[in-house]
Amino acid sequence: MAKKLKVIGTPVPKHDANIRVTGKAIYGHDIMLPCMLHGAILRTEHPSAVIESIDVSDAKKLPGVICVITADDADVNNIGYKRDHPILKKGEANCTRDEIAAVAAETKEIALNALKLIKVKYKVRKGIYNTDDALKVNAPQINKFISGKFENKNIAEKFHYEHGNLEEQKKKSKHIISRKFTLPRMTHACMATSNITASFNMVDKKLLLYSSTQVPFLYQRDMAHALKMNPSDIRVIQPVIGGGFGSKLDMHPFEPICALLSMKTGRPVQILYSREEEFIASPIRQPMEIELTAGVDNKGNFTFREINIVKDNGAYTSWGATTPFVIMQAFSSLYKVKAVTFNSTAVYTNNVFAGSFRGYGNPQATFALERVIDLLADELGMDKAAIRLLNANEQGETTGQGLHFETCGHKECLETVISKSKYSKKRTSKEGDRYKIGIGLASMLHVGGGAKIYRSDGCGTILKIDPYGYCTIITGSNEIGQGSETVLAMIAAEELGIELKKIKVINTDTDVKPWDVGVHASRTSFVAGNSLLGAIKILKEKLNKKAAELLKTNHSNFEYSDNKIISLKSNDSIALDKVVREMHFSEPNELAIADYFYEPSSKFQDKDFKGNVSGTYAFASQAIEVEVDTYTGNVKVLNVYVAQDVGRVLNPLLLDGQIEGGVIQGVGYALTEELLMNEGKIMNPNFHNYKMLTAADVPNIHFFPVETIDKEGPYGAKGVGEASLIPTAAAISNAVCNALGLEILDLPITPEKILKALSLRSTNSKLKVNTNSL
Amino acid sequence: MEFNIISPKTKSELLAAIRREKHFRFGAGCTDLLMELRKKPNENLTIINLSKVIDAQFTGIKKSAKGLRLGALFTAHNIVVNEEIQTGFSALHNAALSLASNQIRQVATIGGNLCTASPSGDISCALTALEAECEILSAAGKIRTVPITSFFTGVRQTALKKNEVLYGIAVSANKKNAKNIFSNFIKVGTRRSMECSVVSLAYHIQTDENGKIIKAGAALGASAPTVRFAKTACEFLIGKNFNTISQKDKEDFAAKVLSYASPITDIRATAWYRKEVLFNISKSIFENPCK
């Protein structure tokens, strides 16, 4: 990469920034199709009940109602990762989100009024709202659609992983720490609520969907399975998406329900969630209990980790059940560790089911691990920064799980935040001081080059240049706000010497674009970027040939700059658009078009979950300084120091956006955000009581990118989307513990928990108070 | 959520509407009302929209030797930008500033905050510490005044009768011999904006040139069925020196404030937490009065 880069590395504003801030962006909520109906869904009144009867006759009679459906009207397959989730529920309700009936009407108001006319007779059951009760021998089976391959009927999924000799490493350990951590439900709370518009064409039997999915091609397949259709008869168009964060990885029942309403009526149907519905019926971060036992030898080397996780799966299985895939990577490979045994169990309950959420289990794992590292350092009397530096991952390392770190910025990240935050400086608060200052440290490891969990983790690109010198990138990947369109345009501008304003990115239509797995696993810039670079290389070979012919030279050593192709030998140049016109209009009449499919070098893991699952890996460390008000229990985050191995900075402006957004989401996870449940019902389905942070709560964020230039990534870049959120809660927890001398074992760290712990300790100063017991 | 809406433009149109309508609610900024109606739809309801009333007595502020008179339709934003309030009555300024967000403060009114009679009303709490007087206008055009401490009669209940509307609020001028004024609103919650008080305390304490307390007002929010004026705590302070008050006196003051609290446990906090924090922030007012 000796060439000086002109576009890559510069702060290019987001491609779609102007249309978004001027209100011109077309979100799913803005779509209006001719003759469109409005759909609404009736959900169960009780999280656990027998549905004795459903009477829709009055609803059907309401003027303006066109169609009412229940499970009896739907010839469909179950959905979900385990196909254990009926789209419309029949016979019983198992979760507060359960869809009982759906209405399509001329207006939204009529549809909502019709829901009130549907009479459902329930026989209320005592539900099961925690995993202990669900695992009791006499507990009823919650989900009837599973094969029952596990020892308990309410187990939805299990994962086991191990490397090294656990017993041997236990013997070598000078200190062993064992703790149980409890993690809450957090919800994405996307700015745009869930939405879909479905239009079924009765003539050609094809279905058109305007959907906010993050994974259009998997969605197309899932929708086809649900509706018993051919996937290619379903066209998925993505309008501008107002927030994903993983929430749109699963297909949710409201989507095939909307399609069904359109199929029944022959008219387009739109379903838009209200904010309350968004809180109730969209996914969450998996709640879980993590038991972690870890050891350290007398020099401070990590010896072993033993992990047992019980996850509350809720009533149905979503992609959320597969988060141990990522969780085990953090435990097996973040910092060097000789032996690891990992077990996780997802247990059905009558609670709401989880989904995927930025970080995919990693924030939970990192919280537990980084807290225990602090405790191990304390036991050993070792500096908390030193123990991390000693065990940090290194370049060239292949971990026990088989993750290979061709490049690794872990140590540099740690060193950066330790020095920038003046971590070692003593933060003294006097006895009796109201405000106590503390600092905490945490690192993270995450996939940085996709994650091979499907047969392919690839992405296709079709690239064309038109006779006017404009470039169109048709990419399989899509934009959910993360900025991939901009990065792709920058790559094309860099390589083809075309101005950014002449580059278009087409990425919203499954009938047009080539295949891609979807937006997840921090993969888009890496995978789609490499795919685009592959297509550019092919297209340049064609252009070079024509340019050589037109410039009457027999070499192909050209530079693309200022919309021209310039011979590096003679300095002669020719306009790019002229070359394209000559390709098109003179023999042998070729198109300036190329396609390429990029498949990362990563490997599918074996049955023991071993193998190099990603093209590259991202590392990050954060040091966070907090001030705790001992009068109120409020924690104020003062400074967040972030160092992240991003491979190479492609666009500093977008990178800052990802870092800041992630950190703020992490602060919310640490301190304020929790979807509260009582007997299966959500208690705070509103922004009033779901404490998502506001602009006024944003701390000072000091970001230091670490560039390791990974040969696998486009220009050396790694994925960045999830990393910035992952260590934040861990670092904040460590900081609060540092400030107060308490043990934080659960999230969020609410003011009430802090005050209660302080009050307990005031009665006995030697008491080791931990928040999990409060 | 369905309702009829009428928008009187003058005081006389408003009074006529009050006399005419059978089943109505007032709406000014509607920041609380719409949330309430969404939760509890109210059939055949008419909203008398006060936001279109053009009448300085309702919308303006007037200064006299006696103090300030604020119209019931004076907005939280109006309070925030008023210099008189900012310098003379910081408790009210800070309470208004802590309310929701800048956007909501543009429409939220004093009258709305008071008449909603939420135990956690921030402006209500500050005005209670200032011992404001409520001016009430009847449909017949008669005015009566009620001390704010008698205005709140229960959770979301006020002394307003069916045919009455809140007209304005009078705040007494600070004492002539007051040399220092310690006035603040302390709001405890988890977020720094868009937050509903979990506990709040407003205080307005005037001292002479030596720091001797000559007048004290303190009110607690989100700690009892209504915002409450901590009368005995205020009386306790009279004659004490604000700058040299003893640790014991601080704690005695806090205990007296706490004696007015009978908080509930709800989704936002337990009663235990509310009491603990109320005590702590009450004693804190002498430690870092501006923090």
Q: How would you concisely characterize the structure shown here?
A:
The complex is a heterodimer of chains A (774) and B (291). Chain A is α+β, with helices and mostly antiparallel strands and 774 residues long. Chain A is built from 18 helices and 30 strands.
Word description of this protein:
The complex is a heterodimer of chains A (774) and B (291). Chain A is of the alpha+beta class and 774 residues long. Chain A contains 18 helices and 30 strands. In chain A, strand 16 (302-314), helix 9 and strand 17 (339-348) form a beta-alpha-beta unit. In chain A, helix 9 (324-333) packs parallel to helix 10 (362-380), helix 13 (484-496) runs parallel beside helix 14 and helix 14 packs across helix 15. The relative contact order of chain A is 0.13. By secondary structure, chain B is an alpha+beta fold. Helix content of chain B is 34%, strand content 25%. Chain B has helices at residues 11-20, 33-39, 56-59, 76-81, 83-88, 90-97, 102-107, 110-116, 122-129, 148-151, 231-237, 247-258, 271-284, and strands spanning 4-6, 24-27, 46-49, 61-64, 67-71, 133-138, 143-147, 152-154, 157-158, 164-172, 180-188, 199-207, 213-221, 228-229. A 5-stranded antiparallel beta sheet of chain B has the order 4-5-10-6-7. Chain B has a 4-stranded antiparallel beta sheet with strand order 11-12-13-14, sandwiched between helices. In chain B, a hairpin with a 4-residue loop joins strand 6 (133-138) and strand 7. Chain B starts with a strand and ends in a 7-residue tail after the last helix. The interface between A and B is medium-sized, with 25 and 22 residues.
